[in-house]
Amino acid sequence: MEDKRPTLTTRQGHPVRDNQSMRTVGERGPATLENYQFIEKITHFDRERVPERVVHARGTGAHGFFEAYGNIGNEPASKYTRAKVLNQTGVRTPMFVRFSTVIGGKDSPETARDPRGFAVKFKTVEGNWDLVGNNLKIFFIRDAIKFPDMIHAFKPDPVTNRQEAWRFYDFVSNSPEALHMVTWVKSPWGIPASYREMEGSGVNTYKLVNDQGVAHLVKFHWVPKQGVRNLTARQAAEIQAHDVSHATRDLYEAIERGEFPEWEFCVQLMADGDHPELDFDPLDDTKLWPEDKFPLLPLGRMVLDKNPDNVFAETEQSAFGTGVLVDGVDFSDDKMLQGRTLSYSDTQRYRVGANYLQLPVNAPQQGAQPRTNQRDGQMAFYVDTGGEDKHINYEPSLVGGLKEAAQPEHDYHQHVEGHLGRYQTSRTADDYRQAGERYRSFEDWEREELINNVGGDLKSCPEPIQLRMVWHLWHCDEDYGRRVAERAGIDLEKAKALPPMEGKPAPHQARHMGGKSEEPATSEEVTGNQ
Fold first, then answer.
1. 196 falls within a domain
2. Which of 358, 376, 391 is the last residue of a domain?
3. CA-angle at 301, arms to 180 and 286, nearest 5°
4. The domain spanning residue 448 has which CATH number?
């Protein structure tokens, strides 16, 4: 059947031939600055709301400190990183943390089913380090070029001004990598009981670099010492009936009465490289690193012990960015991390202003005073030269000004080679397998809640979306798909009869059968099914 829909274009009118992937050097290589299509798309997206945050608008914050243990597992932290904040003991690094929901506006209820933001600003002796993550360890997408589409689908309909289930599942049904995150969010884990009782994760893959210039892939995680507690839909509705700010109130009151919440900071480590032995790409944000192979290793603790003096000046004007790293923590080629690094700081400059880093909540601690040749801009109220000769606002100079820092004795250099193009990951088996494993790992009451939530949502969706979603879920786990179909009144056999999605790899047979997962289909079988 001929597709008569208009062609998607850029704002310059150029036809968009690939809206799924940024341009990278090879399938796993870094993104390039000339990603014009992505930059145009993401910078426009960052400016869609004034002045409220486009995402993470509803939030609360607190001050605290971080202490490193000096070890990662049973080994000195310095074996893996030269970052002082992670390998020096006896030092309390000041911090500011902002918790938030993602989709709702500033006055939305905190009982919403939504990932929670977990943004942390370490004010280290070497400058700021921002770790901007969520309460869940994964995300819906693995390429940053899809972020505006995802948020548009999850935000209210531009015509009805309501969040519509069919829009959410329309996007998800065309994005199988999102199935894992949907399984988390639609379970009780989608509504944490409080900010104090939820986990945190950097989500993205970073690198730790040591004094010898040796790098390891790393995932960062926060584990609450208060324990983890989540809410069912009924419990959330009961709370929302009388309190739309229950999580903000809980955090504030706990700190005021001296019950300071605490998290243990943990890492998962992996040798730097492609890891073809894995069924998933370790740079794919939609995937977990199995903890039996890559255990959580404690390296420090965070304590929140002071509420803001003013919510607007501190919490609302706090600004985070994934590109704000300290020496010893580096970027990987994670496509979400590469895209977020442009988007987050661009958003802050737009939302708060060019000099947002001069605000006390965002400024580095004393001893790491900024000294730059940057000048002026909106709301500049001091010049951060730090030098005696204020005439010289450039570098290099023979008569004064600032100088470059000394190079480390051994630096990390990544070899990059590949053809420039738009690539999607070729390792997609776990798009279905990890979602099925997560379903089977839930307790009975969590599975029941998940089925009720997804099945209830799908009742209001058009039939093509219903059938495709059940097809996806059945390929994750037969019981998962069958029970959702029964709950929503969807014809399971009709859903199972659908062909694989055009342009998408057929799912590997990762369904749970007789206590064991089937062997993955071969590449020949997958190709033959398309």
1. yes
2. 358
3. 15
4. 1.20.1370
Asked if 167 and 264 sit in the same domain, the reply is yes
Q: For 274-325, what is each residue's pLDDT tens digit?
A: 999 998 999 999 999 999 999 999 999 999 999 999 998 999 999 999 999 9
Residue 436 sits in the same domain as residue 339:
no
Residue of 35, 87, 128, 134 marked active site: 134
Angle at which helix 147-154 crosses helix 36-46, to 10 degrees, equals 30
Alpha-carbon torsion (185, 191, 194, 197), positive or negative: negative
What is the C-alpha separation between 275 and 216, in angstroms, rounded?
Answer: 12
Residue 13 lies in a domain: no
Given 309, 326, 358, the domain boundary residue is 358
Q: How many domains does the chain have?
A: 2
Asked whether the beta carbons of 479 and 512 are under 8 A apart, the reply is yes
Please, which residues bridge with residue 201 across strands?
134, 221
Residues 439 and 347 in one domain: no
- Residues 477 and 335 grouped into a single domain: no
Identify whether the C-beta of residue 113 lies closer than 8 Å to the C-beta of residue 239: no
- Average pLDDT for residues 365-383, to the nearest whole number? 79
134 among known catalytic residues: yes
What is the domain range of residue 518? 430-529
Alpha-carbon distances of 16 from 9, 28, 44, 343, 492, rounded to whole Å: 5, 22, 16, 20, 36
In the beta sheet, which residues pair with residue 265? 222, 300
User: pLDDT digit string (tens) for 21-37?
Assistant: 898 999 888 888 778 78
Q: Which of 326, 209, 255 is nearest to 63 (CA)?
A: 255
Mean pLDDT is lowest, of 137-151, 354-368, 381-395, 482-496, for 381-395
435 and 352 co-located in one domain: no
Give the N- to C-terminal CA distance of the chain in Å, as an integer: 18
Residues 124, 270, single domain; the answer is: yes
Is 85:93 a contact under the CB 8 Å cutoff?
Answer: yes
Distances (CA, A) of 529 to 493, 508, 525, 526: 18, 11, 6, 5
Q: Which of 352, 302, 349, 299 is nearest to 95 (CA)?
A: 302
Q: Do 143 and 269 fall into the same domain?
A: yes
Note if 56 is an active site residue: yes
Q: How far is CA 475 from CA 429, 479, 506, 513, 518, in A?
A: 11, 10, 10, 11, 11
Are the C-beta atoms of 191 and 113 separated by less than 8 Å?
A: yes
Torsion sign across C-alpha atoms 428, 432, 433, 434: positive
Q: Does any domain span residue 403?
A: no
Exactly one of 35, 56, 204, 230 is catalytic; which is it? 56
Question: Rg of the chain's alpha carbons, rounded to an integer?
Answer: 24
CATH number for the domain including 341? 2.40.180.10
State the pTM of this model. 0.88
In a domain, 410, yes or no: no
